[in-house]
Amino acid sequence: MTTDVINPSTGQVLTSVPSLGVAETDAAIERAARAFPDWRAVAPGDRARLLRRFAAVVDEHIDELADLEVRNAGHTIGNARWEAGNVRDVLNYYAGAPERLIGKQIPVAGGLDVTFHEPLGVVGIIVPWNFPMPIAGWGFVPALAAGNTVVLKPAELTPLTAIRLGELALEAGIPEGVFQIVPGKGSIVGQRFVTHPAVRKVCFTGSTDVGKSIMAGCADQVKRVTLELGGKSANIVFADADLEKAAAGAPGSVFDNAGQDCCARSRLLVQESVYDKFLALLEPAVSSFRVLDPSDAAAEMGPLISAGHRETVASYVDGADVAFRGSAPDGDGWWFPPTVLLARSTDDRHWREEVFGPVLSVLPFSDEEDAIRLANDTEYGLSGSLWTRDLGRALRVSRAVETGALSVNSHSSVRYWTPFGGMKQSGLGRELGPDALLGFTDVKNVFISM
Ligand code: TAP
Question: How far away, in angstroms, is 130 Cα from ligand 1 center?
Fold first, then answer.
């Protein structure tokens, strides 16, 4: 079977790719299981060298990978180059890991006690369509560095860069069977990762509902699981903040990647004493946000991923209080203008649910306590920002907001050398940084009697 791959900027078919069934998925998992003993036995220095070589090969193909992502996912060319570069950087970062996976020596009576970080075996990675390259890399790179073998399922909508990365791995000398791309449906290929006993861990990024079903399915075999799920992150602006700076960055913090970002700051909380002033600063920043053909170097935002997703996003705007909107191209492709909505109350659907589109909901707050209460009034807890010049308040609010990552006076969320992941229903476990590596190992404790 094959699946057509569509360009979301034009609605045209780009190409078609294989869509694997259960038997083909099983064959890939079994190849990965056979490759595992040799891969874990590769000397740490040699595994490090192979990962660095893979990084170099990715670096030689940045333009090609970026161009594929512009056409397959509608990402702006600037973002797509960053994303391909992120895979290279993550490979270089974790290439330092095989030689540093150091256990402990623990004092005991009558002998020696040492711990080892043992690889798990085959790791199954399920990737969504919103950031196909970085999310793939955040899973497969630390998994390989820790000595596991990997089967990776890209989203059906966006398989092209993952398939290319699989080819580049072989070109770089990663042995056959160690890193395989298994394109196909989540309900078939992804589900098989959950049920196949040789898969020892599943890393899933995507919707909260599918994440819950994967976690429940993994319980049957006590399979390890990492989940990166949705978000409804708050952008909290206090009256004493640098309002110009906060307003200039706010559109990018939610409309980047057309809002299809689990870290999108989709709830804007503004202290009521500066509410009108802040919205007046925000309006020109939104209306000048450049929604263009994503291959245009000036583009800040491209189309949504699919016609169906555009309908879903539009359903949040219908009947809501629109404060102001930007513009988007007419014609073919799944375009949607950046849109700012005024929340009537915290019960508004657009305030509560993850829209996953270029829609920002705004609400005023009275004081610090009110801001924290509103920010935490959600089952999600992935990312967020707060803007203030008061250091004490920055620390108090940072500690009180229930979220896995938070930026003060900044809209950034992800640095590959620091941990990333969700609190509450935004996820389980951490990606990136030193924490992710240990998630791909089990600790073994060995006592040797004297
Ligand atoms: P999901 O259905 O969760 O898809 C994410 C990945 O999981 C895809 O590779 C998908 O495969 C696979 N999958 C689907 N059902 C599965 C199952 N039963 N077992 C194993 N794998 C399965 O997300 P979506 O439908 O693409 O998007 C829906 C909403 O999810 C979005 O609107 C957004 O709110 C949220 N979302 C969040 C994120 C992040 S980063 N947290 C990313 C994407 C979407 P297919 O290729 O067959 O779809």
Answer: 9
